[in-house]
Amino acid sequence: MAATAAAGRAAGLAGLAARPLGAAEPLSLGSLRGKENCTNDEILPMLEHVRPGNGYKPNFIMFEKCEVNGKNAHPIFTFLKEALPFPHDDPSSLMTNPQYIIWSPVCRNDIAWNFEKFLIGPDGVPFKRYSRSFETIKIQDDIELLLQKVA
């Protein structure tokens, strides 16, 4: 995994791969460059139908569940945590209660909660990491900043 993470650092996220749900082979994240994940029109229906389901099938790639911390952390998350060791809006706190840590080894740059967010630039380079308490709507300003750099 160390070699995979090192290769990922050299190529950004485009050099890494993850296995889509139900697929036999991993998909290179570089193949997604320039493609839109989902549009505003798709977000609300997705949220409306994910629970309880009602037969909704997303029209975007969803990846398998994976470990983000510990010795079995997926190379994508190892890469992201090395590039952005802590959320920019909360650089000091890690976990609120150590009894809930169920992985090993524990590292300072571990993802503390499943609502942490990473923003990746169009070039595949991690731009910013946000804590679980950072309001997602506020990421819009950073997205617009990155889009201005591309234009």
TrEMBL record:
Keywords noted in UniProt: Oxidoreductase, Peroxidase
InterPro entries listed in its UniProt record: Glutathione_peroxidase, Thioredoxin-like_sf
EC number: 1.11.1.9
The protein's enzyme class: oxidoreductase
Record's catalysed reaction(s): 2 glutathione + H2O2 = glutathione disulfide + 2 H2O; (12S)-hydroperoxy-(5Z,8Z,10E,14Z)-eicosatetraenoate + 2 glutathione = (12S)-hydroxy-(5Z,8Z,10E,14Z)-eicosatetraenoate + glutathione disulfide + H2O
Oxidoreductase recorded as keyword: yes
Any one Gene Ontology cellular component term annotated for this protein: mitochondrion
GO biological process, one term: response to hydrogen peroxide
GO terms for MF: glutathione peroxidase activity
Family: Belongs to the glutathione peroxidase family.
Subunit structure: Homotetramer. Interacts with MIEN1.
Record's protein name: Glutathione peroxidase 1
